[in-house]
Every structure is written in C-alpha cells, then in structure tokens.
UniProtKB/TrEMBL annotation:
This is Cytochrome c oxidase subunit 3. It comes from the Eukaryota. Its main location: membrane. Belongs to the cytochrome c oxidase subunit 3 family. PROSITE patterns: COX3 (PS50253). The chain crosses the membrane at residues 20-43, 55-77, 92-113, 120-142, 154-180, 192-213. It comes from Haplorchis taichui. One of its GO terms (molecular function) is cytochrome-c oxidase activity. One of its GO terms (biological process) is aerobic electron transport chain.
Length: 214
C-alpha cells in the first residue's frame, strides 16, 4: 500500500484552494510539493522493490531520532550540575569517539569501493573497531560507581548510553552478516548497513557531548 495517493490528493487540494484564493505562497508550496511527489512517484514506478525498503529504513531512522532525542532531553532536564558524569570525558568515552569515527571512515571507504577485490578489508576493520567500542562500553559499565537507580539523571543517562550500546551491537552484527553472506553481492543491503552505522556514529557524538562533556 502506497502513501502517495493520500499525499497527492492533499497536494491537489492545496493547489486548488491556493489558486481560488490567489495565495501566491500556496502556489509555490504546491509546485514544491508536486516536485517532491513526482520524485517518489518515479521511485515507486521504476524501482518498486527498493523504494519500499528504503522508505521503511528512513522511517525507522526518524523513529530512532525521536527516541534518542527524548532520552537526551530527559538527561538535560534532570541535570542540575551536581551529579557529575558517568565517566571522565577524556578517558574511555573519548577513546570511544576515536573508535567510532574511524570505523565510520572505513565503512565509507568500503561503501565507495563496493565490488572491488579488497573492499572487504575495510568492512572487517569497521567490525573490529565497533567490537572495540563494545568492549570499552562494557568496561565503563562495570567500572562506573553509580547505577541506573541512583537518581533520575543517572537513570536517563544509563538508558541513553545503554540504548546506543545495543545499536552498536546490532550494527556490528549487521556488518558481520554482510561480510559472511557476501560483501560484494548486495549493494542495497550494504548501503543500508553503512547508513545505519553512520547514524550510530552521529548519535554517539550527541551522547558524548550532552552526557559526558557538558
């Protein structure tokens, strides 16, 4: 089932009302929405298999942004400056930044070199770097002196970091499946995995900035 018919009917209604009331901004909005609709219509007509999966993936990313945004806002709302951070910002979390950013770089190289004989090496490096980040997070969890029940701030912070940790584990697992099942056979699956890994990296930058550094 496509969402385009509902969207197109709404666009046509906006265009008709704008022309009837002679609202110039509505006409420009109608033209912009029409171009947007035409773009997705081409995707659904000529690439029906890929468009559904791509749309589902981006809807998933939007939902993830909402979840992480809610948790980070909860952390900021309950931060009165007296609790401190989970760990020193210049120790394990800072090293984690280097691991994830480097893995993002190697994943990008793999994506751009997809299909070349040795592109799998960069994917393997990304997996090892992601696994290293997982080990750092486990070390931090066991070394932390507080827990999720200590106060509201630490509860929200642990939930945010723990949720990101689960996403890193899922990303490492997805890259491992990609490496084992065929690193040069399915470009769309490789693209989705790399996009997801970039999303995980970007989220960590916000987590590091708002939970550890600020």
């Amino acid at each position: 089932m496509s969402w385009l018919p509902v969207y197109n009917s709404w666009v046509v209604m906006v265009g008709i009302v704008s022309l009837f009331l002679w609202k110039l901004w509505g006409v420009f909005f109608f033209l912009g929405a029409l171009i947007f609709s035409a773009y997705f219509l081409v995707w659904e007509v000529f690439f029906p298999h890929l468009s559904r999966y791509a749309m589902a993936f981006w809807l998933f990313i939007v939902s993830e942004v909402a979840i992480f945004g809610s948790l980070l806002l909860t952390v900021l709302w309950n931060d009165d400056g007296g609790e401190g951070a989970l760990s020193d910002s210049l120790e394990l979390p800072f090293l984690g930044c280097f691991l994830l950013l480097t893995s993002s770089l190697t994943a990008t190289v793999y994506h751009h070199c997809f299909g070349l004989p040795y592109s799998w090496v960069f994917l393997l490096i990304s997996i090892f770097l992601g696994f290293g980040f997982v080990c750092l997070q486990l070390w931090e969890f066991f070394d932390c002196e507080c827990d999720v029940l200590y106060c509201t701030y630490f509860g929200a912070a642990f939930c945010t970091v723990g949720l990101h940790f689960s996403h890193v584990v899922a990303g490492v697992a997805a890259m491992t499946v990609l490496l084992v099942s065929g690193w040069d056979t399915n470009h769309f699956y490789a693209s989705v995995v790399v996009w997801y890994w970039h999303f995980v990296d970007y989220v960590w930058l916000w987590v590091y900035l708002l939970i550890y550094y600020v």
